[in-house]
Specification:
Length: 100
């Protein structure tokens, strides 16, 4: 199982230093293309995506986060989010309208 990262150039560069492949994205079109490329390779078991990029393509990301078991999509903070992670309860509430 391999990792794939989608994010800004700095994030992708940082992960590449430890051998993780990825693509940078600056807009929704590039983010969709990067996610599609990651999903077509079944060797990628975990897709790491920065929160700001995930927000650009929220419906596609949520479809995999909440309905698919493979690959696992993990959102991480980056400089644009101030390093703060999203609360899982808030994410569930936003996606399906249920408060935990």
């Amino acid at each position: 199982m391999r990792y794939f990262v989608i994010g800004d150039e700095d994030t992708v560069l940082g992960f590449s230093l430890v051998g993780t492949q990825g693509l940078s994205a600056a807009n929704a079109e590039q983010a969709r293309a990067a996610l599609a490329k990651a999903l077509e390779n079944h060797e990628y078991g975990i897709i790491i995506i920065t929160q700001d990029i995930a927000d650009m393509i929220r419906s596609e990301v949520d479809r995999y986060v909440f309905t698919e078991t493979f690959p696992l999509i993990v959102e991480i903070p980056n400089r644009a989010t101030g390093g703060e992670s999203r609360d899982l309860k808030a994410l569930v509430h936003e996606a399906i309208g249920v408060s935990l």
